[in-house]
Amino acid sequence: MTSRPALKALGFAAILLTLTLESAAQLAPIPQDQGASGLGLALRRLPVSFNVLYVTAHPDDENNGVLALLSRGKGVRTGLLTVTRGDGGQNEIGPELFQAIGILRTEELAGVHRYDAVEQYFTKAYEFGYSFSVEETLEKWGKEEILDDVVRVFRTFRPDVVLTLSLEAPGGGQHHQTTARLAKEAFRVAADPSRFPGQGLLPWQAQRDYQGGVGGGTERLEGEMTTVATNGFDPLLGMSYAEFGSIARSFHKCQGGSQLKSDPGNGLATYFIVDSEPKITGGGTSILPDDISVKALVRFARGEENSLPSLAGGLAAIQDAAIAAS
Predict the structure, then answer these.
(1) Could you tell me whether strands 161-164 and 208-212 are parallel, antiparallel, or unpaired per DSSP bridges?
(2) Which of 46, 101, 193, 304 has its CA 20 to 30 A from that of 251?
């Protein structure tokens, strides 16, 4: 007969094994990141030197198809700055609320990013529930404190293009609009060395700032419009970016994230340009400039015209080697 201490030990071992297997499943690379497809996706990043930062108010505000297109399809280094952790949201799968659901939604974002390969950032802002005005939100968050956080991410991540929610969306509470306002202000403030010098970070000027609806909706805003199609088929992913993004989005389970994959033909996001440096006109056909390659790094040599020919030649050689490898 097995003794009681031995049974307890066996029970503990079984629990430990279960937790280990669950952790291994969570940490294991997804199928697309393994084998030839994984190598192909990694090689896509080699000839690209471009950063896009998506700024949202809560977990699940992001357009997951757009993130998949940028990070997986274009090979762009892509970041998501979620200003709050969604502490004031509802929970459709359990009893957790407030700080507990903020932790849960943070973990769900980690699951999302196993698929879209996006870097995650947060600020100290606490989502206190539905807000009726931008002014109320800024007062409760502390505008300068949260702007400091947003500017810090801009200067650390150094985005070339910024995407965010609509500044004047017709619904959904005021956290979305507040976040868009902070991102729009940070677009210029991050480049001003007199603002937040205590960060100890170099100033950074992004090139373009776009705003869309919640998740890239279709309501009209001021500024020239650009559409982003996410229904293109990717042979390395085995599906469209909209489909792949919908799988990633399904990890937002406490917010009722659908477990159904998007239809192959669906996927169109709409964005409006609200600021740019240098100034550009027209919406164009892409939120990205024509050249996002390693060669485009020559733009940082402004004022060093004597070194431009050799620098351009060296960057071209790196570009050619990266393309050959991929």
Answers:
(1) parallel
(2) 46
- For the entire predicted model, the pTM comes to 0.87
Long-range contacts of 40-46 (CB under 8 A, 24+ apart): 40/236, 40/326, 41/72, 41/117, 41/236, 41/237, 43/325, 43/326, 44/72, 44/73, 44/74, 44/75, 44/236, 44/326, 45/75, 45/77, 46/75, 46/322, 46/323, 46/325, 46/326
What pLDDT score was predicted for residue 165? 82
27-292: in CATH 3.40.50.10320: yes
Can you list the residues of the chain whose pLDDT is less than 70? 1-27, 167-173, 213-222, 282-284, 302-307, 326
User: Is cis: bond before 278, omega within 30 of 0?
Assistant: yes
Give the residue from 183, 194, 145, 176 showing the smallest Cα distance to 161: 183
Q: For 39-42, which contacts have Cβ atoms below 8 Å and span 24 or more sequence positions? A: 40/236, 40/326, 41/72, 41/117, 41/236, 41/237
| Residues 119-130 pLDDT 10s | 999 999 999 888
Tokens of 269: 């996001």
Rounded Cα distance, 127 and 129, in Å? 6
Domains of the chain, by residue range, sit at 27-292, 293-326
Phi and psi at residue 78, to the nearest 5°: -125, 135
What backbone phi and psi angles, to 5 degrees, belong to 81?
-100, 105
DSSP strands (E only) in the chain: 51-56, 77-82, 119-122, 161-164, 208-212, 225-229, 233-234, 239-240, 268-276
Q: Which amino acid is at 221?
A: L
Burial of 129: CB neighbours in 10 Å, binned 0-12, 13-18, 19+: exposed
Taking the C-alpha atoms of 211, 148, 76 and 278 in order, what is their torsion angle to the nearest 10 degrees? 60
Half-sphere exposure of 200 (CA within 13 A, CB side): 0
Pure H helices in 230-270: 241-249
